[in-house]
From TrEMBL:
Protein name stated in the entry: Bardet-Biedl syndrome 1 protein GAE domain-containing protein
Listed GO CC annotations: axoneme; BBSome; centrosome
Domain spans labelled Bardet-Biedl syndrome 1 protein GAE: 122-194
InterPro entries linked: BBS1, GAE_BBS1
GO BP, one annotated term: protein localization to cilium
Organism: Photinus pyralis (Common eastern firefly)
A molecular function GO annotation: patched binding
One Pfam family from the record: GAE_BBS1
Length: 200
């Protein structure tokens, strides 16, 4: 097999040798005056008779996984003992969130005081990733107006601090061009009040 490299311009000079602490370096000078350095890996192996059935040495070593903390073990045991209750609790919170959102939308649509800008064509959608106690809330802000961009907007997250903790409570929304969307990732932590000790 033959290997090849490409240069951005016509080479004017090519030299191969040692440079600094590297033993195998190729320097290419082009007619346009640019200099390109090609450094060969020190661990490169050009042997043709390699046994593909033998795994590399690096794969035989275990991955450096972090140690499992006491809180992680207790939380895992809690999930194994009460999987149904935890899932039902999550579903209830999700239904309650949808109900609150629907009530708020109905109130805004029926309010005649002119809260909000009716000229702005904005579509909001939320997605929940995870089952708890830590999950991610993804809020998508979509600009439905094909001619006007969204500027000077902010997202405000409100929740009961006794039940949830958010990584973001207020966030300025950047410039959103017409017919495009912007996603906000907010990490949510459920406050457990079952007397679990904190991991020091």
């Amino acid at each position: 097999p033959v290997d090849y490299i490409s240069a951005p311009d016509t080479p004017s000079a090519i030299v191969f040798g040692q440079m600094g602490q590297e033993d195998h370096v190729m320097v290419i000078i082009t007619l346009g005056g640019t200099i390109n350095f090609k450094i060969l890996k020190r661990t490169a192996d050009f042997g043709l008779n390699q046994d593909t059935g033998i795994s590399p040495t690096i794969q035989s070593k275990p991955l450096p996984l972090p140690k499992r903390s006491k809180l992680f073990l207790e939380q895992s045991l809690r999930e194994k003992q009460n999987p149904t209750d935890m899932h039902q609790s999550f579903q209830q919170d999700l239904i309650r969130l949808r109900l609150t959102s629907a009530r708020t939308l109905l109130q805004i649509n029926s309010d005649q005081s002119g809260i909000g800008n009716t000229k702005e064509q904005i579509k909001l959608s939320a997605q929940v990733l995870g089952l708890g106690p830590t999950f991610t809330l993804i809020l998508t802000v979509e600009n439905m107006n094909p001619d006007k961009a969204l500027i000077q907007l902010s997202a405000i997250f409100h929740c009961n601090p006794e039940n949830y903790q958010l990584s973001l409570y207020t966030l300025p929304i950047p410039f959103v061009p017409p017919s495009l969307s912007y996603k906000i990732h907010n990490k949510v932590i459920e406050c457990l009040n079952d007397g679990l000790p904190k991991d020091e």
